[in-house]
Protein 1
Amino acid sequence: MPETTGSTAPLIELDTVSQVFHAKGQDLPAVSGVSLSVDEGEVLCLVGESGSGKTTTARLAAGLAAPTGGAVRFRGKDLQSMTRAERHEYRRAVQYIHQDPYASLNPIRSVRSTLSIPLRKHGLAHSAAEVEQRVDELLTTVDLTPAESYRSKFPHQLSGGQRQRVSVARGLTLNPKLLIADESTSMLDVSIRVSLLNMFTRLRKEEGVGFIYITHDLALAKYFAWEGRTAVMYLGKIVEVGPTPQIIANPQHPYTRALLDAVPEPDPELAALKKPGGGLLSAEIPSLAALPSGCAFHPRCPLAQDRCRTSSPQLKPAPGAEQDVACMVVTDPASSEASA
Amino acid sequence: MPTTSPSSTPADGTGADGTSSAAGSRAADGTSTPVLSVKDLEVAYRTGKDSRVRALRGVSFDLHPHSSLALVGESGCGKTTLGLALLRLLPALGEITGGSITFTGDDGRAREVTDMTASQLRRWRWSEAAMVFQGAQNAFNPVLTVGAQMADTLRDHAPGRIRRKEILERSAEVLRSVRLEPRRVLGSYPHELSGGMKQRALIATGLLMRPRLLVLDEPTTALDILTQRTVIDLLAELREEFGFAMIFISHDLALAAELADRVVTMYAGTVVETGSTADIFSSPRHPYTSKLINAVPPVRGDLAELASIPGAPPSLATLPPGCAFAPRCELATDECRTAEPPLIPLTERPRDMTHAAACIHHDQVHHERKVIARA
């Protein structure tokens, strides 16, 4: 439906974006030089612990914050230099799904009201009958059926999982091309989480919706982004990015390995397969206000060498693997003895 | 129908409650007296002047010294209510309406928790049975330092008067056990600690009096994956070091697979399956447990399909007739909708590890993960 500008430009592209926050007279580089892109029907997972910059990156992609460096482009157009009409189109195409279903719905609006406001505002439904029909379609898409038993409900009358679905339905009102879902703070029951992911996959395959999915759990990334890519972030930078099956089966960065080893397995036999020694030297992530020198990961890294304390690694293809990794020990093992 | 310990025969509510003598309680793991023996426990919440909902219905299990039991199920199935009831910490509207909770301390004396007076409870809690509450972020008082809150616990629960020096020594000791730097943590306010440090400080506070029983409610929810790992590994080590028996409550079966000897699945306020962790994960026999396991993605191995459980748990106020899980179960037949099935013992195992499921179609539960892509 929306007219495409650049035919080869990706749906959304982050080009070396940075976001520096200022707090208490300090600079906090929450995101530094991150580049990535997602097209329609594609899925990208952003993985990392709290403070890794994954949520800030997603907010930049959603236009909820303007980057302090670099550019975010939608179909090749920089968000900063868009016309009103282009911006309107972008706002429709990219939707952010807040994952706290207890805080993101207006408590005094019924489900019908929550869903019909964007429909009317963007002129996607005019008559009352049209609105009603579209609301029912949306509720059916998110498996809130029969729709008539949910239309008039208020958030407090719904369970956490049902609220989450209403949140998703609201994200879908404008026929988006990209959904950005932040699961990093979610405490949903496992079954609700799975039903949402299965619904997202259906939307991706059947409607061609692209996804940026944010989690700290590589097991969820494996499940949801098996056909897509996963980017592992640490202190504002991508440290490893590539096709998800490779990241899971053949992780290159010591941080990715630690994240993998940390995942609890729902199977005592698989848990026993875990290789010992993937541990980190420290459990705590350093503060953005006092970033370590060189590779920011070196104080926690079991592989750290002297050179890691002084020079910072670039994201490069890992030898013998399909992904890019920002670790000198992995990408330039030969020069390890040379630097002392 | 409860399964009782020594001979693991299904008990019919007789005999087993004859209050154990001191003999045998100090015996090694083999044939010990349970630390905790729960029988036909019933809890109700008042919802109005004359109305109550039954939040727990006929819950029975034994917990042996040094063992670890996971209570699993979705939100609203009664896990937290059970945890709170065990320590008589139910909110004002909740009440134990039936059954018994028998605690056997180091002295081998069996005591009935449901009969304890307020002052007996005060002496018992924290010194012999402690709880680590859900939500590490809010469990500490924000205007007191961690050290002050640990000192309060010691003053309230240690027998006799306790000197400042001893308070400091004992607080520092348990903090070191959970890998925290006492110097840094004792003087800190809760907001000055990270989520993982707070959770570890909470566990340390629970261990101050070296209790025989530790109940943990969702000890890793809302923590980052790396912090979760630290807490999981720490709990396994602390259990060795301190020798407590542990009950932990979780909606995540993966945690049970890593930490528990035994799993108890709860649904709609009652136990629907119980067994050793190995039995439960290799061949769950209640369709609910099987579906819970298949909702958690494994990170190793092939890509397996995950399926959600259709529908939602029933409201406790309007339980369906018969098996409460029947409306969500594809194996359900008319028989399921008429009578609630009892726990049926399936595989006899020693030490209360007998595998039992409350499902008349337990032999039709074929648990497998459907592989959708090879790793």
Protein 2
Amino acid sequence: MILTERERAQRKLLGLLGRGVLFAVTSVAALAVLAIIFFIARDAWPFFQQHGAGAFFLSKAWYPAHATPQFGAAAIIAGSLLVTATAVVLAVPPGIFAALCLSDVLPFGVRQVVKPVIEVLAAIPSVAYGFFALVVLAPLLQDKGGRLLAAAWCVLAVPVLSLAAVVAGDLLTPERLKGLAYRLVRGLLTALFLTAGGAVGVWGWRALTALQVPSGVNALNASVILGVMALPTIISVSEDALQAAGRELREGSYALGATRAETLFKVVVPASVSGMFSAVLLGVMRALGETMVVWMASGNAAQIPKPWFNLLQPVRTLTATIAGDMGEADQMTGSAHYHVLFAMGLSLLVFSFACNLAGERIVARQRKRLRGG
Amino acid sequence: MMVMVAGALAGARTVCAQDKLALDGSTTVGPIAKAFAEYTMRQNQNVNITVSESGSGNGAKALLNGTCDIANLSRDLKESERQAMEQKGVKPVAHVVAYDGLPVIVHPSNRVKGLTLEQVRDIYTGKVTNWKQVGGADLPIVVISRDTNSGTFETFKELVLGKEAKICEGTEYTGSNGGVRQRVQMTKGAIGFAGLGFVDRSVKALEINGVAPSAETVVAKSYPISRELFMFTKGEPAPDGLVAAFIGLSRSEKGREIIEEIGFVPVPEKK
């Protein structure tokens, strides 16, 4: 094909133009993020200037409406972390197992039906979850909280304690005993540990059934709902990661004589662990950034529970504080109350940013290791 | 009454040139002023009314400096404010536009019938933590409050807690009056407060210092957690002027409706 000088110039120009437009579109997204950071930081700065970072991060006295207002955010930051961490602890194990089940255990037809249904869960508006938390879960926790927790304890403790008893019995039996003596001692020890485990189990059951939950809107309520909200993200993204490990890998493993379980846990999971890590990270972000549910379900008390892991006490999170207080915090006069909310937004932003960055690093390292090994 | 107000507004347009009205002051009275302004401007296209909410103290200052025609206050003028106005030759005239009362509510099963104002304060500051300390069952008290930005909270803080008291840190905060009622009706140990219009049979309103909250006791001010809401003008407003018509709205049928809708108690009709 022969092009005249003019045609060539035209094509070059067009190419340049195309690239320019695409570049501009991409930069809009990046610039938007930078602009958000800039504007939040700009409004957060006056607070740190006036009150100092120490008063913000270390003090837990949150009295924004008092005659002499105090803006200590320590209890609120702790509340955010507590609720997020609990939600993640509750959501990650079932999420990962559900993903494994969907991708490698259940028949393909079932997966085709179940996965879209799970993804619909992610589309339910958060205020609907919040309403459920307030109207259904909170009274349930108040009236039957002890028994509910005791049931959860049973589901967790029975398998774990039995397994621990059997393993401990096996490990503690002296190696030098042979034959019948060995089996007898092991049996006795296992029985002993099982009894001890049973006692612990019953003690836990009794303690939990006797538990009175004075208020159903508390850290546990918010965490449970946040966990359920994070589940679809975790399941869907992990399942995609497991699928991405590929058919060749699985068939290669079977060809070497590995069983299905061996293939799953020793080949497929290690190959897709970085993707699953991203899934968990997305779940964390979902829980940390959620506002409506925690505003409705967490009780919004600016306190660190006593003891700190007492999930049955109300807590207040950064997101709920921003949402609840922004309406009336005086913007015109640039009050400290207004700026402290931006300081909270900035903390949230920095925290998510750090989390994401760390996640990227870990994922990248994992990929490199897999490629090398 | 409606006809009278409409007539007064029409008169304002023709008789005097004052078509602009500026209001400033309390965030509690603000919603009433805003609703009145909206209604007035819908009735009369030529009128322009602006309502700012910078707080009662700033409202008084604005009236003194002449930057507003009507100052909204959720309290009476302080002595210092009166003196400052007199020095400047401004004669403040108070107009009560509505009453504000906050019932303290508990779960219907609660044995406690009433509390003193002191006891309510002690519960909210965390000194009293169990119902048995105030004559109820052995049940931990779940303290519920409106969020600190609401006018309802402001009222409660001023009338119950006082300036220096700090609300206890385990207090739950809820974003609406309906939300407080919802939490209280579900929770056995709960105590909360909400506007008079939000209290129904699903919760129990406590007697405070022996007086049960109602529109009558709030207006009579025998119920302790109640107050008058004022609009202050510079001197007595001209009877056929816009200011008089605007404040007169609070005595009209439509005005009463608006006030009740927002959750306050309208001034009773004189018999």
Protein 3
Amino acid sequence: MKPNKFWAWLVFALGAAYFLVPLLATFIFSLRMRRNELSFDAYVSVFSDPRFYGTFGYSLAIGAVTIVVGVLVVVPAVYFVRLRMPWLRPVMEFVTLLPLIIPALVLVYGYIRLYNSSSIIPFTSSAFGTDILLTGAYVTLALPYMYRAVDNGMRTIDIGTLTEAAQIAGANQLQIIGQIILPNILVAILSGAFLTFAIVIGEFTIASLLNRPAFGPYLVGIGTNKAYEPAALAIISFIITWGAMGMINVLGRFAPRTSARTD
Amino acid sequence: MTDSTSRPTRRRIPWDYLAVAPFVIFAVMFLFMPTLSLIGTAFTDRAGNFTFDNIGGLFTDQILAAYSISIRVSGASAILGALIGLAITLAIIRGRLPAPLRSAVMTFSGVASNFAGVPLAFAFIATLGRIGLVTIVLRDVFHLDLYRAGFSLFSFWGLTLTYLYFQIPLMMLTIAPAVDGLKKEWSEAAQMLGANQWQFWRYVGLPILWPSFLGTLSLLFANAFGAIATAWALTGSNLNIVTVLLYNQIRGDALQNPGLGAALALGMIVITSLANVIYLIVAKRAERWMK
């Protein structure tokens, strides 16, 4: 058993090196903007660019709308399918898996061809319409994760009993979903929301093909024109991703632990 | 399952269908219709007639080369990612490394598997690019010039090495439950029957992990195959992978034929579907062992 432990540490150390060296190297690289000394000049340069705030704010706003739309689309559907139409579950599972099978690039190509300015629903002919398309694309990208988060959340609470209790107390369907179910799965929804945020915030492909001023295309622009700022932006992005994932971990501690399976 | 439809308080409004409607409408508008219209375009010529010409048009050197390099990069990053990810997971869980280390590694995996796209490309350029820190240190301190030795970050292996940064953590997150499912009793039983470590893994451990391993492998493949942002920020149009080709087609009709572009997209769906069908079949088999 002893050599076992040695190999375990060796494999772990090699893995840790592969993952930590690029982070460390990128961080040091980002500090080397000034000649012969380390400085935070690259970060100052990033944070003094108004386009940084403009594009980041735009992606933040689209991300927020994506989360709200995602919740509105997923929560009622999961609730009613679990409660009344369990035969629909395999279909929902399949549909929410599709975004993992159909590449985002293909999806946005379909959008551009289907909703162009000469079609019945000309989304792409106005900025607002294109924002709707972008949001739709992001909700689709996040669908597998949002669905699984909400589905797991509903599995841990007994929605059948909760619903009956609320009905006996005289609540209507809207009150049941809004005031009983939603608060009970809030932690799960927030986990899905932060994951959605992590996916959406730096997304490049769809935003660039729809010509929207999002953070991802801005990043690529900086990458082609600057030397040290991209490294600084990589570190900033890593911290943002870490923050989003850290929030999910923190939230996990507040999740209900009882697992009253209704299925 | 509690069936409350039989309750006397039932409303006239068909809430069930009303509540599922947004989901259905959304899926139709943003998932099914766009994909179906694209598939339709792939089988339509400029005059609007049915044709197989677009599919046939895929079989040119340029497009086949693009598919081939995409499949090879995705295959290499999936296989290496799966093997390395499994090795690290086994080391952490079966090698009995300290428990806090395990939770730290799993948290990091969650972050790294989502740290993809453009920022990841930036990080690797700063590390292993022509003037990347590791490249410079290796050259000046160890007198090893990577780029003179034939390595380039903007090549097949460079892209594969970069993709591993999100492939390995994804493997670890997906395979960890399966590794956890390897019960202690099994290795004890094997030991009591006189099996050594190698025999345990050969006849018990790996056969049990195999379905999960294979399933995750196809997930990783599809994951890398559809990726473009990292490749785009890393190599621009240098590396002719199929997503970059399609991106250029959408941007400016690079192939000068929308039908051919749609056929290119259809080919991608077919390949990722195949990978996922394998995943679903294999996942069904894997479930037997997870109870």
